[in-house]
Amino acid sequence: MNKRIYHYILSAGMAVTAAACSTQKELSLPERITVPVTTDTLSLSSFSQVFNDPYLQGLIDTALHNNFDLLSAAQRVAVAQANLMMAKNAWLPSLNLALSSGVDKYADYTLNGVGNFDTNLSPNISKDQHIPGPTPEYFAGLRSSWEIDLWGKLKSQRQASYARFLGSEQGRRLLVTQIVAGVSGLYYELTAMDNELAIIQRNITLQEAAVATVHIQKAGGRATELAVQQFTAQLLSTKALEFGVKQEITSLENQLNALMGRLPQPISRTTITGTQTLPAAVKGGIPSSLLLLRPDIQRAELELTAAKADVKAARAAFLPSLTITPYTGFNAFKAGLLFQSPGSIAWGAVGNLTAPIFNKKQLKAQYNISTANAYTAFYDYQQAIVNSYQEVASALNKVDNQQQAFALKSNEVLVLQEAVSTANILFTTGYANYLEVITAQKNVLEAELALVTTRRNVYQGLVSLYRALGGGFNVAQ
């Protein structure tokens, strides 16, 4: 008998050892992209002038408190934190209060049936120890289960959950950056449309004066009905343009209110005139150390860390697992004897060493899934780095080009404004025809609107650059 038991134990040990040797290979990812090392001084504090508008700061604060997407992101962080709590405590034993009852009717030709019958005939037992048939079973006590983390599977799962929790925080930070950039972009778009509206209304006043003048000249025989019609048509076109801009302003205000999680209402804002100077030029190259702190890059890197830990946990699933299940409590086959101590006190412990044999296809499939997810996370991380560099490079070029274009457009507006005055003087003295006046007025209107667009592009470029560098809302604090 002893040899047979030894043979069984040896066979089980060999099976466990064989199972332990059949794990999958370790994860090996490609080389990471080389990040250039720079010593540039460009930082987020360079953008304080972009966010120093008190109205803009108030809108951003409101959006960060009320935006529904951001509130949802906070709940996703809470979910990730709860998952982390579960993973951190997975290595601890479970302890459950157990109250159970049951009944068994043993057949006469079974081990328990014969044993119970023989036991009841023994003179060594008392009346309370007689086993009834059918036999009830009552238990009240504690049961526990504890999986020993032999191969680091639970540790890897805990590392994956921790990385994903940190990743959810970075996801929320990324959303904050997007909201700040979105509110700022819409705000400067709105102020630019205000400026356009003011320019159009000023030109309407000038064109109304020109129509009145040409009517007087027609009455004096110095202009024709065609000149009156041309001046009037130009005035009507400019007035129609005014209503288009008003509609655009309303649409932008509604978009801003939606970002702030509120119903449509007027937006208070600063009036920006064409004489105001632009923010100082942003100088410097692409700061690699700052880019690596971008929330999307941080989140991609943390997701890669979590995916690697998933692969380790999937590899460990091929190895044997050791589970200990102790219990203690009151146990009896009669309800009246259940709590009669010490006779009803029972305890025990079982250790289970198990290794997967017939379910390895499922384990291998899970390992392949985890490996594919790790490669996906790696490529996403690489792409996030590439995207960050191209976004910063494009934004830097846009700001620089638009600032230079703004200087040229400013000079163009000054020249054309003088041209309008000259054309009006020449027209009243008979040295220019009405078409030259109309052309001059049209050109100055287009140039002034183009100047507003260029100013708006400078601010939009600065907001995009701020977002590309990692963003947030710390420069206004």
From TrEMBL:
Descriptive protein name:
NodT family efflux transporter outer membrane factor (OMF) lipoprotein
Lineage from the top down? Bacteria, Pseudomonadati, Bacteroidota, Chitinophagia, Chitinophagales
Q: Which PANTHER family match?
A: OUTER MEMBRANE CATION EFFLUX PROTEIN, OUTER MEMBRANE PROTEIN-RELATED
Q: Where in the cell is it found?
A: Cell membrane
What are the recorded GO MF terms, alphabetically? efflux transmembrane transporter activity
Question: Does the record's keyword annotation contain Iron?
Answer: no
Task: Give the matching Gene3D superfamilies.
Answer: Outer membrane efflux proteins (OEP)
Keyword Lipoprotein among UniProt keywords: yes
